[in-house]
Specification:
Blueprint (H helix, E strand, L loop, with lengths): L10 E5 L3 H10 L5 E6 L3 E3 L4 H5 L9 E3 H4 L6 E5 L2 E5 L4 E4 L4 E3 L2 E4 L3 E3 L17 H20 L3 H7 L1 E5 L3 H17 L13 E5 L11 H13 L2 E4 L4 E5 L2 E4 L2 E4 L2 E4 L3 E3 L2 H5 L9 E2 L5 E2 L2 E6 L4 E2 L1 E3 L2 E2 L4 H19 L14 E6 L2 E5 L4 E4 H14 L3 H17 L15
Helix pairs in contact: 1-9, 4-5
Length: about 425
């Protein structure tokens, strides 16, 4: 008797190859379903170290790995380089910008977030954010070019504006960025110019609230503020920004003339809520149930920065890499469980702590039960970031570059790419 037609394997489609999406894909590798991973970039990016690309410590290749090389040995996973334009939930199909449509039995949406300008998207040209490699290299270009232009500028006021750097936002990204710019100016570039003194550059960290690092205990946040000030960073609190342009920023307390501005003040989710036709919160995040699924569709999982889920009290699960990885792993495990006929338990977020570095000798770490600050915390911060980097080559290169910068005070990736508009 001839065998009947082979039953098609279930298909899981994953949108986004960030921490959540890539973790889900790896957890589904070799499983009972075929997986299609779709991303608009061909690489997985380790976003927590983007600021080190922007300040010439690391190369983009140190913190990014091609998705295909990560998943090359997984025969049940295919990777598509494309953009999502629509999700047809009735037909269970994802429409892509290339015109291709991909059918799914299960969908994991993990498309991440980008920087938010609170209704002033026109500010982005003057104050780029830091979410992608292109943005990091553009910020690096602006920082290094500012010093080159200052070297040639005879007007003292224009030179002062060129050597003023403003970082907007006092969260971990803003704190790390401000500290790194200060170190670049006062250490790495200090002896490289003949007509200017880079160590005299002014770095300003602007925060609208009453303190920086609001997710950290107040004592650690205060230690970070004092550390920044020892490095020469002006920390301006309770100073909301009212305007950004290529000449500087306006705040409720006056204007700061600056030719280089970095935006680190907020994030908003990708337009996934529009694709899915569901409600979202003010930041574009999608409310999910206890199993990370849409409340009216248990075959669609939402993971990472775009998910809105209560964690404790009035707090949502934070938009950090460990949380995204936990969500991605849970979604994959839940699908495996349901394919086997079981019922997955609710998602439970495990908070492992908050980390932020201020400079080459100072970091602050909140493990909840343990608070660390100072040089030892800096080494712990470095170990954690090296541990989470994907690929032996990346870990080795980052360690070598960090050691080089630590002992020599030099930055090895001081390249000005793109247009060099000296005039």
């Amino acid at each position: 008797m001839a065998d009947g037609p082979e039953k098609a394997r279930p298909r899981v489609v994953i949108l986004g190859a960030g921490f959540a999406g890539l973790t889900a894909a790896k957890k589904l590798a070799g499983g009972p379903a075929d997986v299609t991973l779709i991303d608009r970039q061909n690489y997985h990016l380790f976003q927590p170290l983007l600021y080190q690309v922007a300040t010439a410590t690391l190369s983009p290749a140190d913190i990014a790995v091609p998705i295909r090389s990560i998943l090359r040995g997984e025969s049940n996973i295919e990777v598509l380089l494309d953009r999502v334009t629509e999700v047809n939930r009735e037909e269970r199909r994802v429409k892509l910008s290339s015109g291709k449509e991909v059918a799914y039995d299960w969908l994991i949406v993990a498309t991440g977030a980008r920087h938010a300008y609170f209704g002033h998207d026109e500010w982005e040209e003057a104050a780029p954010g830091l979410k992608e490699i292109d943005e990091a290299t553009e910020i690096r270009r602006r920082i290094l070019l500012a010093f080159e232009r200052a070297e040639m500028e005879a007007d003292p006021e224009k030179r002062k504006a060129l050597m003023t750097f403003v970082v907007v936002g006092g969260g971990p990204t803003g704190v790390e960025m401000a500290g790194a710019i200060a170190e670049l100016a006062k250490k790495a570039l200090a002896a490289d110019f003949r007509h200017i003194d880079p160590s005299g550059a002014r770095v300003v960290l602007i925060e609208a609230g009453p303190r920086i690092l609001t997710a950290f205990p107040e004592k650690l946040a205060e230690a970070a503020r004092k550390g920044l000030e020892r490095m020469g960073v002006d920390v301006e609190l309770e100073r909301p920004v009212t305007l950004c342009d290529r000449g500087g920023i306006d705040t409720e307390k006056g204007r700061i003339e600056a030719r280089t501005i970095v935006w680190a003040a907020g994030v908003e989710a990708s337009p996934a809520a529009e694709w899915l036709g569901v409600e979202s919160d003010k930041a574009g995040r999608i409310p999910v149930g206890e199993c990370l699924t849409l409340k009216d569709d248990d075959r669609i999982f939402i993971a990472g920065d775009i998910a809105s889920l209560r964690w404790k009290d009035d707090m949502n699960v934070p938009g950090i890499a460990p949380a995204a990885k936990q969500m991605g792993a849970y979604a994959a495990k839940a699908i495996r469980t349901r394919l086997a006929g079981g019922t997955p338990p609710p998602f439970r977020y495990r908070h492992n702590g908050n980390l932020a570095t201020v400079g080459r000798k100072l970091a602050v770490i909140d493990f909840g039960w343990l608070h660390l600050k100072g040089r030892f915390a800096w080494f712990v911060w470095g170990f954690v970031h090296i541990f989470f980097l994907i690929g032996f080559r990346n870990r080795l290169f980052v360690i070598l570059r960090w050691l080089w910068a630590y002992f020599t005070f030099r930055r090895g990736v001081r390249l000005i790419t793109g247009p060099v508009d000296i005039a």
